[in-house]
From TrEMBL:
<keyword id="KW-0813">Transport</keyword>
<protein>
    <submittedName>
        <fullName>Urea ABC transporter, ATP-binding protein UrtD</fullName>
    </submittedName>
</protein>
<feature type="domain" description="ABC transporter">
    <location>
        <begin position="12"/>
        <end position="254"/>
    </location>
</feature>
<dbReference type="Pfam" id="PF00005">
    <property type="entry name" value="ABC_tran"/>
</dbReference>
<dbReference type="InterPro" id="IPR027417">
    <property type="entry name" value="P-loop_NTPase"/>
</dbReference>
<keyword id="KW-0067">ATP-binding</keyword>
<dbReference type="InterPro" id="IPR051120">
    <property type="entry name" value="ABC_AA/LPS_Transport"/>
</dbReference>
<dbReference type="InterPro" id="IPR032823">
    <property type="entry name" value="BCA_ABC_TP_C"/>
</dbReference>
<dbReference type="GO" id="GO:0005886">
    <property type="term" value="C:plasma membrane"/>
</dbReference>
<dbReference type="InterPro" id="IPR003439">
    <property type="entry name" value="ABC_transporter-like_ATP-bd"/>
</dbReference>
<dbReference type="Pfam" id="PF12399">
    <property type="entry name" value="BCA_ABC_TP_C"/>
</dbReference>
<dbReference type="GO" id="GO:0005524">
    <property type="term" value="F:ATP binding"/>
</dbReference>
<dbReference type="InterPro" id="IPR017781">
    <property type="entry name" value="ABC_transptr_urea_ATP-bd_UrtD"/>
</dbReference>
<keyword id="KW-0547">Nucleotide-binding</keyword>
<dbReference type="GO" id="GO:0016887">
    <property type="term" value="F:ATP hydrolysis activity"/>
</dbReference>
Length: 257
């Protein structure tokens, strides 16, 4: 349990959380702390509970027991997904969900304006502040050259970057990113890593990932958390985790590298 003095830099507190689905304990006494400005990578074999962990933070699933707090003692367990999102927690799912027939620019405009609705947004002339904001987002995700291209015509990697840009348009404090490198070429994967590292200067980020080359790239000297059977098996720098016998047994030993 964290003491008050240790909490000053804490952004997310997950303590002793459990979640059972139909008698199966998907998350079991999970404790996890994230500091402000951290870029944390979470790995673990299939079924370890990574998606459920994100579901619990974002309010998609509710814990049976335990505490989940954001910022300075804001209890997330009593809030719904919308309220948690409004607090500043954004999630990017593995499969990009962009408006295929609308341009990259329009997709970013839609995210910037929130729940106004597609029709209202696209019939309203963006303000110069909105244009500046979108230009900055396009630079961040390196899609300036694609601003007028319909999102459906983008390459897989570009769609993922656009969706990250759409998430950033809401200016979240905490970004939860699910397997961003899945299905990407090596070059796209490396660019995604660079992008996440640059975002970590302003945001706190948790990335769930299977691709170990990518995990090594983004983890640098930061912490990697290994989940197994719904709980934290170990935590440490990439090389420490990689050398841990328990990790080798449950994860790397199964042929994932
Ligand atoms: N809504 C649900 N109902 C029943 N069982 C569930 C539900 N959600 C998750 N589970 C179970 O909980 C366990 C953890 O699932 P979860 O999807 O969180 O793992 P994961 O680490 O994300 O796996 P993967 O790497 O394959 O995506 C799995 O055994 C899964 O079948």
């Amino acid at each position: 349990m964290k003491l008050a003095a240790e909490k000053t830099n804490l952004l997310l507190l997950v303590e002793d959380v459990s979640k059972t689905f139909d008698g199966f304990k998907a998350i079991s006494n999970l404790t996890f702390y994230l500091d402000r400005g951290e870029l944390r990578t979470v790995i673990g074999p299939n079924g370890a509970g990574k998606s459920t962990f994100f579901d619990l933070i974002t309010g998609r699933a509710k814990p049976d027991t335990g505490r989940i707090e954001f910022g300075w003692n804001t209890d997330l367990t009593g809030m719904n997904e919308y309220q948690i999102n409004r607090l500043g927690i954004g999630r990017k799912f593995q499969t990009p969900s962009v408006y295929a027939e609308h341009t990259v620019f329009e997709n970013l405009l839609l995210s910037l304006q929130g729940p106004r609705g597609v029709f209202a947004t696209l019939w309203h002339r963006p303000t110069s502040t909105e244009r500046d904001r979108i230009d900055a987002l396009l630079r961040t995700v390196r899609l300036e050259a694609k601003r007028a291209v319909p999102a459906g015509r983008l390459a897989h990697g570009e769609k993922q970057w656009l969706e990250l840009g759409m998430l950033l348009a809401q200016d979240p404090q905490l970004l939860l990113v699910d397997e961003p490198a899945a299905g990407m070429t090596d070059d796209e994967t490396a660019r995604t890593g660079d992008l996440l590292i640059s975002l970590a200067e302003k945001h706190s980020i948790i990335v769930v990932e299977h691709d170990m080359t990518f995990v090594r790239q983004i983890a640098r000297d930061g912490k990697v958390t290994v989940l197994h059977q719904g709980t934290v098996l170990c935590e440490g720098r990439f090389d420490e985790v990689q050398a841990d016998e328990r990790v080798r047994e449950v994860y790397l030993g199964r042929g994932k590298h």
